[in-house]
Design goal:
- The protein has a 7-stranded mixed β-sheet, with helices on both faces. Strands 1-2 form a two-stranded antiparallel sheet.
- The protein is built from 13 helices and 9 strands.
- A hairpin with a 5-residue loop joins strand 1 and strand 2 (about 20).
- The termini are far apart.
- The protein has about 325 residues and is of the alpha/beta class.
- The protein is about 45% helix and about 20% strand.
């Protein structure tokens, strides 16, 4: 498919012969799907909208909940990926009515902004590390990573900044997840990106899928120890810090701290606490039944006090998302 500026959209196999676009945050159609002013105005109006929705007849409210595509109190990894693609990159996919409606909603634009900003932060962290240590391999540990869009796109940003930094070293993306659909699509996306003429051709990139329950983080510690000489980056976008308990988050952070090198980093996203969150987002998530955590920055700091990690940097998005990075003292 031809797109803006004649830039192609790459496709990878999903299931049953279905092909989906490989999510590339540098693609013109991805950039065109983000209008931060429109998203800001939508967030301002959302509180009023949810109050109006609550006053509607029950059968209409039920229809709206079904339209939101929540599965078992959370939005599945592949459905999240679809909404991150946005209306432009997803235009060649045959979608059901609910997904076709949802992918055009301004409210889901926040997922694209969150992904873009986290990838920018991760590439900013890794660029100087890769430049300083050309002899070290690189690995990502992506907890509840799904299709690993943040890890893949961080590599894309690094390559666009300085392609020499990725050559001549082993690169691993390790997806730690109980889901299989997202990681399978991630592997196929990497395979497509490694084909001749594509972004990752000639790069030594391996994608591993590890069945992982974050309440038992021993596998993370073991894998990190086995890569003791590598540059290590652990992330969880829309995962551990948005759904995990305090004890689960603490255990994962402590295990990774004990096994990772001194320059290891952790990045992720979390949701504002109830006292400060956008009231429309709070009302919406409670209305559709998403069992998300309103952890907030104070909640994160309370958790960090029980670890040896320190908050390095954070970035807020419309009183909904907080993106952050952690480092060792």
């Amino acid at each position: 498919m031809n797109a803006n500026q004649n830039q192609r959209i790459l496709y990878a196999a999903f299931e049953n012969g279905i092909e989906l676009p490989v999510l590339d945050i540098t693609h013109p159609l991805f950039n065109a799907s983000i209008d931060e002013q429109a998203y800001h105005l939508s967030c301002l109006k959302s509180a009023q909208s949810i109050e109006s929705l609550k006053k509607m007849p029950g059968f209409i409210r039920n229809i709206f909940v079904k339209m939101s595509n929540v599965d078992n109190s959370y939005l599945s990894g592949m459905r999240t990926l679809l909404y991150k693609l946005g209306p432009g990159l997803s235009q060649g996919i045959k979608l059901g009515f609910r997904d076709k409606w949802a992918v055009k909603q301004t409210s889901f634009m926040g997922l694209r902004i969150r992904l873009r900003d986290l990838c920018r932060r991760q590439s900013k962290i890794l660029l100087p590390q890769l430049g300083q240590f050309p002899e070290r391999n690189l690995c990502f540990f992506n907890i509840a990573g799904g299709a690993a869009a943040d890890s893949i796109n961080t590599l894309i940003l690094i390559q666009e900044s300085d392609p020499e930094l990725l050559k001549g070293r082993k690169i691993e993306i390790n997806i730690l997840d109980i889901d299989t659909y997202g990681p399978n699509f991630a592997k196929r996306s990497i395979d497509v990106l490694k084909q001749p003429g594509e972004r990752f051709h000639s790069l030594d990139i391996t994608l591993n899928t590890i069945h992982y329950d974050w309440s038992g983080p021993e596998a993370l510690r073991k894998m990190s120890l086995e890569r003791s000489g590598w540059i290590q980056h652990c992330s969880s976008e829309g995962g551990l810090f948005e759904y995990g308990s305090d004890s689960d988050i603490i255990e994962n952070l402590n295990h990774f701290f004990a096994s990772s090198p001194a320059d290891a980093r952790v990045t992720g996203s979390l949701i504002f606490d109830r006292a400060h969150i956008n009231p429309g987002y709070l009302g919406f998530t409670e209305f559709i039944g998403v069992q998300i955590r309103y952890l907030g920055l104070e909640g994160l700091q309370r958790i960090l006090d029980q670890t040896s990690w320190v908050l390095e940097e954070f970035h807020e998005i419309e009183e909904i998302y907080i993106l952050f990075s952690l480092k060792k003292v």
